[in-house]
Amino acid sequence: MIGSGFGGLFATKALAHEQVLVTVLANTGYHLFQPLLYQVATGVLSVGEVAPATREVLRRQRNARVLLGTVTEIDLAARSVVSESPAGTLRTTYDMLIVAAGSGQSYFGHDEFAEFAPGMKTIDDALELRGRIFGAFEHAEVRAQDPAATVEELRALLTFVVVGAGPTGVEMAGQIAELAHRALRDNFRNINPAHVRIVLADFAEAVLGPFDPRLRDRAADHLERMGVELQLGRRVVGVDQDGVSLEGPDGTVTRIDTQTKIWAAGVQASPLGATLAEQSGAPTDRAGRVRVEADCTLPGHPEVFVVGDMMSLDGVPGLAQAAMQSAEHAAGQIARRLRGAPTGQPFQYRDKGSMAIVSRFYAVAELGDRKVWGLPAWVLWLGVHLVYLIGFKNRLTTLLHWAVSFVGSGRSERTATHQQVIARTVMLERQQDDPGGPATRPPPTP
Question: Which one is catalytic: 128, 138, 153, 171?
């Protein structure tokens, strides 16, 4: 099992009672509940609530073992996987392989943007963004007491640009607005956090593109009432240390000066997809996903299943529920083979609906023909996410933190490390002293 995300974990648990030995190979020691990662970045939840240790989750499953390592090679002919870890190189052989390595952030050919606009795919991304978001307010507070500080400089420090108007971008923009207008109120003396500018930019013409138009319009209206500025139908053509450049439909380029950029647009499948495609001859799509057979197997290799964000199959979206369902289907196929039952049944995706939270007490949800918005959708969103959180302890502490943040106005997870805030402040001050100097990213979070 390559990967410990939704695909890897659900496939492993589905094989708990089968006569198999499951080896879970992953480059992290935790299972990441990625849909709530933005709440780590904005101080609502702690890391442990969205990323329980994989060993803890599987501790009672005696036929499963967890090995930490980054998979660097898959040899289909030899049926082996090579992984690298601090302990060295490990080659693991397999009879059956499930590849659920997930996806990363896509910058659409502009990987240089990543230095200035972190994505929202890993714990490191979330902690980096937490430091940048809270650090922006701290830096503005310090600069505001300096008589030499200009209005433009302070405005740039209190401007936040979120690129990508899908669910992640909408949720992030809404949480920054909540943070500025509620959670940080009366926390500062030299600045008013409510005087922020929050920009949500996307090349698409509407927020929450896959949703019903009525829900898109309601979400957009609610965001604008919260003070979020929508810059839709505009392509990002430049991102640097000091701002973002947006190109409109008429070719006009608009510059937004900001020190805090967040990238929530686009996904790219794990590079392992290219490895599988090269050896099997299977095609890949623009996102690097591998075209699989109807039963989620790799063409020409019935012993290899590709699931979740790495598979390309007609009509199956790159969502968490698709990863869980395809993983359980793959595990079911393996169980049938063990029993000598017929296999090859096509994977049938069951769309359980889509939802996105816009702010506290307001969300939108699309459940088949039913469209729900406002408080009912928000309650539904809370319930669904609590159900899929791994472990009773995680559900309980998450519920408590949500009560603090949504019912009250506090943020219990505002801690940012010295590297995240102080080092960034020093870097910005040096750039102000030497505007022509190189732009360097602050040290990574340990």
Answer: 171
Q: What are phi and psi of 97, to 5 degrees?
A: -130, 130
**Residue whose C-alpha is closest to residue 367's, from 354, 378, 380:** 354
Is 171 in the active site?
Answer: yes
Query: Between the CA of residue 114 and those of 135, 254, 316, what are the distances in Å?
Result: 18, 20, 28
Rounded (5°) CA angle 104-101-90: 120
Q: Is residue 311 exposed (0-12), middle (13-18) or buried (19+ Cβ within 10 Å)?
A: buried
Q: 15, 107 in Cβ contact below 8 A? A: no
| Average pLDDT of the segment spanning 319-341 | 96
The pairs formed by 183-187 with CB atoms below 8 angstroms and a separation of 24 or more are 183/43, 183/405, 183/409, 183/410, 183/411, 184/137, 185/409, 187/137
267 vs 310: CA distance, rounded Å: 11
Cβ neighbours for 258, distance < 8 A, ≥ 6 positions apart:
156, 159, 160, 161, 197, 199, 242, 243, 244
Per residue in 338-366, pLDDT (tens digit) is 999 999 999 999 999 999 999 999 999 99
Closest by alpha carbon to 1, among 280, 322, 331? 331
| E strands present in 184-252 | 197-202, 228-232, 235-240, 243-247
Backbone angles phi, psi at 423, to 5 degrees: -60, -35
Tokens of 401: 């933190």
- In this predicted model, what pLDDT tens digit does every residue of 61-73 receive, in sequence order? 999 999 999 999 9
Token pair 């075209």: residue: 291
Residue 168 burial (CB count, 10 A): 23
Question: How far apart are the two ends of the chain, measured CA to CA in Å?
Answer: 27
Residue 386: what pLDDT?
87
